[in-house]
Amino acid sequence: MPALSVRKGCPGAAFFWFQAVALPCVLTAACAALAQHNPALPDANLTPGAIDPYVTPHNLQSTVCVKGYTASVRPDKRVTNRLKREQIRQYRYADTNPQSYEEDHLIPLSIGGSPSDPQNLWPQPRKGEWGAEQKNDLEFVVYKLVCQGELPLAQAQQRIALNWIEAYQAWVPSHQHLLPRGRRAAD
What we know:
By secondary structure, the chain is mostly helical. The protein has helices at residues 11-37, 69-73, 77-91, 132-147, 153-162, 164-171; strands at residues 101-105, 121-125.
């Protein structure tokens, strides 16, 4: 990693460096350790997450927040189905039936996740306490929060990449009202 210069008299620069460089390194290591213990989380070595560099906090309203955006960038199913079969082998899942998994974007397309980078795609189990339905609810709530300006884009991306289950626990229960009818806990 290249050394960053920090000018004297700028105490905020050291803090910024910690947030921008050191903290993500620590979080990535923590994510890898957590993923080994919870089969509902992707292996951080195989799927650390990747973002689309064209989506920025400055262009949200003309990219991810536009209706139909995700459909316009979503990769072809033939590509993701082929990748899913390959990744099921890489993940060494006991159940090798592709129908048991959703090839999911760890960092959702709806908040600027990379559409086609294999480091952002993984075969997510459909069933279980923390299956694809729960992750889809998280994606919807976070999309709404980001597009409404209530949650910074980078924070949403980083928190989901680190541990989507913890992100779900932090955001979904307190924002049930953002979910479509039929997906809310009270429904």
